[in-house]
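User: Predict the structure for this protein chain, please.
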Amino acid sequence: MTETIMHIDLNADLGEGCNNDEQLLTLVSSANIACGWHAGDANTIVQSVRWALKNGVAIGAHPSFPDRENFGRSAMQLTAEEIFNSMLYQLGALDAIVRAQGGQLAHVKPHGALYNQAARDPALADAICSAIKTFNPKLALFGLAGSELIRAAQRAGLKAIEEVFADRGYQADGSLVNRSLPGALIEDDDKALQQTLSLVKDKQVVAIDGSVIPVNAQTVCLHGDGAHALSFARLIRARLNQENISVQAPA
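Assistant: Here is the predicted structure, written as structure tokens:
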């Protein structure tokens, strides 16, 4: 009997002012490029796109609330129309650069507070997915596994890619631990590696209360702004190779 080869997508948020983007793009299969509202500008977008294309990495948009002062991590309450328009604005800007460089946009992953609020708020999630579908219904949506964002993408007829996190703590309901709380970030590489393997191989994760929750892991986020981002990316790629798990972007 032939052994089935597992595969997983590794993604990283890029163009956010870190100095290791070029190296990370040799290790991941998908890149989420900041669209300028929480970080980045036209020059960083162009450079990130060029590096991604050079390495054959799938390119995604990483749109945010208009919150550059707080890196897009502050909660905001915008109308559905404001969300819709802001998504079109950011997607259009990145798409134009990607096309000019000879590539094409593959997916969208909201950033920071926009991502986390949409994971809980069906109306916000619907507004995001409506904008994506209007802009280009072939784009996939990366959202927190099991969240309202995933359900909204499915309602909209978009390809929904369920995302998990190598270095974030989980609540018992499958949500991420708020960054302001203890246990939000896993700073030990070995612990993050074990969590990643559990997510990918066993489709489960241990929450901060000790409970084990099922998770449909289709893409793993490796944060590019962590203190050990590059070393951890190398560590997880090596371990996945040992486990005969192929790294590839969603088909």
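The helical segments are 21-24, 42-54, 80-100, 112-120, 122-135, 148-156, 189-202, 229-242.
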